[in-house]
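Structure ticket #2291
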Amino acid sequence: MSEKSCIKCGSKEAGTKEVAMTGTGLSKMLDVQHNKFIVVYCKSCGYSEFYNKDSSRGANILDLFFG
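Resolution: structure written out below.
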């Protein structure tokens, strides 16, 4: 089994957060936040990647982040 780490700094510690963002046009004007993402970030350097919450699969996100 290979060791996985941040592609920017090599740290092995990551965190996740859920965020919602507005789109464009009318949803932006009305501040409707219907775009949901999971952010995976390195706790050491702060490098972050966004994954669409609707198409992501839980634990596999960290595998994508750490390559």
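Closing remark: The two ends are 13 Å apart (CA to CA).
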